[in-house]
Amino acid sequence: MNRFSPFEASLWFATAEPAPATRALAESLDADVCIVGAGYTGLTTALELAKKNVSVVVLEAQEAGFGGSGRNAGHCTPTFTHYSLGELRRMLGEPWAERLIQRQTRANDRVGAMIRDYQIACEWQQNGYVMGALQPANIPALEQKVEEYNAVGARTRLLNDGAAREITGSPRLIGGWQHEEGGHLNPLGYARGLARAVMQEGGRLFTHSPVRSVERQAGRWRVETPKGAVLADKVIFATGAYTVGGWPKLEQTFKIMRVFVAATQPLSEETRRHVLPQNTTMHDGRGDIYVYKYDRDGRIVASMFPMGRRGVDLAYTRQVMTDRLKWLHPDIREEIRWEYLWFGELDMQYRTVPRLYDLAPGIVGLTGLSGRGVPTGSMLGGILSEWAMDVPEKDLSLRLEPLRAAPFYMAFGPQLSLRYHRAKEWLSARRSGSPLPPHA
């Protein structure tokens, strides 16, 4: 799917609660803070500020949740990708690392509270997350996860083969890592609910209002749209992977990595008794990631990264997803039909943690969520609202950095990493005699 096309193939667009009524900006407004981008990051920032009686305007080029916030698979797992917590501490330094770890690992508390407080209808289920182990070589890394995440207050445990199979229904697993606080939801429904909450608290949201320019005016910032403008003391760019213009070179701070998500028909009660019987979120544990969970109607919603023909040849893509699902769950007897298939884009950083850029006095931009959108975007609102409320830089949970382009190798590095892990797992499985899924 083209990044700027509507959600014709998206399950979420077909099933999410309607968006609140909004309009394009067609006048000149005054605000304390202008936020560009109505995804999770922009909306949670606006919500935090509006609750504190800060005058806030949100400008969105399309509609609330149009980008990654409405296109992701709906997993809400408050963890970090790629790097261990120890590696993050060495990379980010203290106190920045510990502050960010605490915010990220408690992010689902914020998600659950906002859903509860604003009665957001988004299929929220907090039944845990399981990362499986398909071969003995997977176990040491899962043991490390238990030690590291439990040390910072998360509720996780190592699963033996029996427990992993009981929770997930997959006889292929020899163990796993369970994060009891993991959850899943309808991501577009959540974004629309956040938009409604912002408006409920007095924030002003304008859709179909792309930012054309930002210029200094009388000691403040004038944010221009095609038919209107906002004069604000502070400006926050929170456009993520869907950054287009607005501020020079902001779109160069990350590289795009595509992901696709697909949803089956509603599965039979018999299948659902054997596949994810506890309605948890499942990661099969391979570096060539396959993550899946149910929606409210009993559809399996699964995501993978494009590789070779996968993601290009859609018939082949559906076959790969079916073969992986049925390999993990041989008890599935019914035909699998992937009735929805759509694409999203990730704003990848080599650190795989967000970067907060000091663009000008009173203006920041944040990019680089790197695929951890729901919990990460939800907790970032707390950090950005603190910046807007003049919390000193030394006390923030992200370090302010000068604008810099992402390294050139990020254009191909994530794909190379997927292929590397795929080859490594293939060799490890051959040595241990572990079975491999189709298309491995």
Output the CATH topology of the largest domain.
FAD/NAD(P)-binding domain
Portion of residues within helices: 25-40%
Strand content: 15-25%
- Biggest pleated-sheet summary: 9 strands, mixed
Oligomer: single chain
* CATH architecture classification name of the largest domain: 3-Layer(bba) Sandwich
CATH superfamily of the largest domain: FAD/NAD(P)-binding domain
CATH class of the largest domain reads: Alpha Beta
Query: What is the domain total for the residues?
Result: 2
Shape: globular
Structural class: alpha/beta
Number of helices: 13
The stretches of 5 or more residues where confidence is low (pLDDT under 50) are: none
Q: Indicate the radius of gyration in whole angstroms.
A: 21 Å
Instruction: Give the tally of β-strands.
Output: 19
Distance between the termini: 25 Å
Calculate the mean pLDDT score and round it.
Answer: 95
Quick structural gist:
32% of the residues lie in helices and 23% in strands. The chain has 440 residues and is α/β, with parallel strands linked by helices. The protein folds into two domains: 11-73 and 188-252 and 351-406, FAD/NAD(P)-binding domain, CATH 3.50.50; 129-180 and 266-336 and 413-432, D-Amino Acid Oxidase, Chain A, domain 2 (2-Layer Sandwich).
Report on the architecture of this protein.
This protein has two domains: 11-73 and 188-252 and 351-406, 3-Layer(bba) Sandwich (FAD/NAD(P)-binding domain), CATH 3.50.50.60; 129-180 and 266-336 and 413-432, D-Amino Acid Oxidase, subunit A, domain 2 (D-Amino Acid Oxidase, Chain A, domain 2). The mean pLDDT is 95. Strands 1, 2, 8, 9, 10, 11, 17, 18 and 19 form a nine-stranded mixed beta sheet that branches. It has an eight-stranded mixed beta sheet with strand order 5-6-4-13-14-15-12-16. Strands 3-7 form a two-stranded antiparallel sheet. It is globular and about 70 Å long. By secondary structure, the protein is of the alpha/beta class. α2 (40-51) packs parallel to α9. The protein is built from 13 helices and 19 strands. It has helices at 11-15, 40-51, 68-71, 85-92, 96-105, 107-117, 139-151, 161-168, 187-200, 269-274, 314-328, 373-388, 413-432; strands spanning 28-36, 56-59, 75-76, 129-133, 156-159, 175-179, 183-184, 204-206, 213-217, 220-224, 229-237, 255-264, 281-283, 291-294, 300-304, 338-348, 355-360, 363-367, 400-402. Residues 32-387 form the FAD dependent oxidoreductase domain. Keywords: Oxidoreductase. InterPro entries: FAD-dep_OxRdtase (IPR006076), FAD/NAD-bd_sf (IPR036188).
